[in-house]
Amino acid sequence: MFFVNVPIGMLIFALTFLLVPDPHTGRAHRLDLTGVLLSTVALTCVTFALGEGGRYSWNAGIRTLGATGLALAALFLRQQSQRQKSESPSRSYCSPTAASLLAGLVSFCAGLLTVIPRAWPMRRSP
């Protein structure tokens, strides 16, 4: 797991410098409560569905929860792009909240790459 997470963490760290804008733009900073709420609920739904899906035999509720999380993540990304267009049309960059969501999803998926191969034999056993 160490050899998977460290390179991905270094990649995310490097991408942060490229994608996250300098916060010293001269204007007051406002907390994006809608973005925080959407990304938090989306990540919670997807994480719970993927983490506990096996325990609940991937029933309809777990699949619905995962799909809801993905839909909320898509809504979050759409909301962030609309917000970005309305605030500064001359600059195109990834918002810090969107960068955080993407970094969290990439880290979580990298962790899954190490867990799924170990859990798969348990799922297939009779």
Could you describe the 3D structure shown?
- Helix 2 runs parallel beside helix 4 (96-124).
- With 126 residues, the chain is mainly α.
- It has 4 helices and no strands.
- It has a domain at 32-110.
- Residues 89-93 have low confidence and may be disordered.
- The two termini are 28 Å apart.
- The longest helix is centred in the C-terminal third of the chain and has 29 residues, at 96-124.
Mean pLDDT: 75
Q: Return the structural class.
A: mainly alpha
Instruction: Give the ordered list of helices and strands.
Output: HHHH
Count the beta strands: 0
Which bin fits the share of residues in helices? Answer: over 70%
Strand content bin = under 5%
- Rg of Cα set: 17 Å
| Count of discrete alpha- or pi-helical segments spanning 4 or more residues | 4
Span from first to last CA?
28 Å
Largest sheet: none
Poorly predicted parts: 89-93
Q: What would the principal axes of the Cα set say about the shape?
A: flat
Supply database-style keywords.
single chain, mainly alpha, 75% helix, 0% strand, flat
Summarize it.
Helices cover 75% and strands 0% of the residues. The protein contains 4 helices and no strands. The two termini are 28 Å apart.
Question: Any chance you could write out the topology, listing elements then pairs?
Answer:
Layout: H1 2-19, H2 33-52, H3 60-87, H4 96-124
